[in-house]
Amino acid sequence: MAHFNIVIGRSRLMRLAPGASVSQHTDSHYFWRNHLRIHIPIVTDPNVVFYCGKEMVHMAGGESWTFNNWLSHSVENRSDNARIHLVIDTVGSAKLWRMIHGHDNTPRPVEFSAQDLGMLRFEGFRGLPVMPSPELRADLEQLVDDIAEVDKTASQQKQQLRLRTTDFLHDWQSQWMAHGLTIDGFPGFKRLLDAYRQDIDQVPDQLLLVSNNESFKEAVMYTLDVALAPEKLPKGGARRAGSTSILAPRPRFDRPIFIVAAPRSGSTLLFETLGLNRDLWSVGDESHKHFESISALQPSGESPSNRLTAAMATRDVTETLKNSFVSDLVRSDGRLFAHFPEMSRPKEVRFLEKTPKNSLRIPFIVEAFPDAYFVFLFRDAKQNISSLLESWRSGRYVTYPQLAGWPTDNPWSHLLIPGWQDLVKSSLVEIVTQQWLVTNQIILDDLGELPRERWSAIEYDALLANTTNELQRLCHFSQIIFGPRMHEAASKPLKHSKYTLTAPRPDKWKKNALELEPVIPSTEQLMSTLRGLV
Questions:
Q1: Which stretch of DSSP H or E encloses residue 36?
Q2: How far apart are CA 280 and CA 258, in angstroms?
Q3: CB 428 within 8 A of CB 410
Q4: CB 423 within 8 A of CB 434
């Protein structure tokens, strides 16, 4: 590490297990605009292959490599051994760049010497709280110039973005000259940034860059995320006595989208697929802890099931729930809301949520989120009930292991429906059938109280058979863009969700056909009603 004569940003030993891979991606966060990564193989194998752009190489032991991480790249370990690389992230040095550009390419051995430890230097500067106008100009103009003019519309959008970006940069420079890095200038910088960000937010995801075929919009947003960062002010410099706090408030949940469905109906698959959309935020998984950490929302004597009413959405409860959501709020690219610089956090988020228990909480959700949208997913009764049987028997979905009045040798799994107490002496197939019936009927009744434009229904089999059409329809209903990620996901068979027990098949229910035979007639009328919704 010392031999390169560089200042080191980060370093680590990275292990890739036998047979594992790093999927294709680009490094488009702003950190990578002026950093590169050096790879030094420590343990490797000729069957470890690295791809970058159109090239494929094996990084052999005793070598050091770097690459253009702005381009799409990936790794495959096709060997039976773990691969371990030392990686170093750095802005480089004159010596290193001479080696990279071929001006100094003499191979040489580098032996370890304890004396070299004193030569290691590490980054201590993390950027200014306000990005200087020349740096911002260089980055934004380069990104606009890189837009692919694939058709007349893209060319017009590029020209409009060039004009808008030039205006923004002129105003940014004026604000910089008036206030520099003083806190008095921050509100003005934030107004400029918010206005420009709103314009960029209207840019379609399909507007791509020539250099790496990635979204222009996403790349620009990474720059804007770091253009204003008050937390980088020197200690004591971010606030003055009597000044107004500039901490970003909690974002507004704008038209949040709640997927409601009976358990084992495919809601995780739908959530994971819609969650690819760059417009959406979520808590990354189901929201059991966010609801049930609030004592007023736990099953109790007054409300002994997961059913929640509008009256239970008091101001205090709603505020606590929203704050809990924000603590885990994550964008589709995996970036936590809490990790955004304070001044760059969005004021509004489109929130996507999926928890089967929330199918019994629609009146509460409507009261807490008055502009909420609902996607009602239902599945063929035979398939759904068979899957519920398998999941109860697996023991992986127990939600109430010590439910008062319920036998401990068959602990309750999945959502707790109203009237569960009447099922104590019922067979397992009768219990899960009742879960399916009660959940879908409650969803149907509750959504029936809302205007039809607030909810949309989709059948699981239709999602699998006509993926593109169904996802386009849901995106149109939800008022979100059907962008490249959604297009890609819809162009091939949907991946199994993380909660899949065994690979799904339309006829898999037949293994439980004899057990299902007595209960299926009780589902037929409701099943017919559900199919009439779409």
A1: strand 36-43
A2: 12
A3: yes
A4: yes
Return the half-sphere exposure (C-beta side, CA atoms, 13 A cut-off) of residue 292. Answer: 17
The structure tokens listed for 456 are 């949309």
Angle made by CA atoms 224, 225, 227, in degrees to the nearest 5: 55
DSSP state of 449: T
Residue with tokens 């970058």: 52
List phi, psi (to 5°) of 33: -70, -30
Residues facing residue 458 across a β-bridge? 377
| Tokens coding 115 | 């004396």
* Residue 167 reports pLDDT greater than 70: yes
Each residue's pLDDT tens digit, 197-242: 999 989 998 999 999 999 999 899 989 988 988 766 654 443 333 3
Per-residue model confidence as pLDDT tens digits over 54-85: 999 999 998 999 999 999 999 999 999 999 99
The number of angstroms, rounded, from the C-alpha of 91 to the middle of its chain's C-alpha atoms is: 29
Give the CA-trace dihedral at 26, 32, 35, 37, to 10 degrees.
Answer: -30
SS3 letters for 189-249? HHHHHHHHHHHHHCCCCCCEECCCCCEHHHHHHHHHHHHECHHHCCCCCCCCCCCCCCCCC
pLDDT in tens, 467-481: 999 999 999 999 998
DSSP bridge pairs for 121: 7
Contact in structure between 292 and 254 (CB atoms under 8 Å): no
Amino acid sitting at position 392: W
Distance CA 444, CA 421 (A): 23
Coil, strand or helix at 331 = strand
Report the chain's terminal Cα–Cα distance, integer Å.
62
The three-point CA angle 431-437-443 to 5° equals 130
Give the CA-trace dihedral at 444, 446, 449, 454, to 10 degrees. Answer: -80
Distance CA 388, CA 431 (A): 10
Alpha-carbon gap, residue 58 to 78, rounded angstroms: 11
Contact by Cβ (8 Å): 64, 39: yes
Residue 464, token pair as written in the block: 């699998």
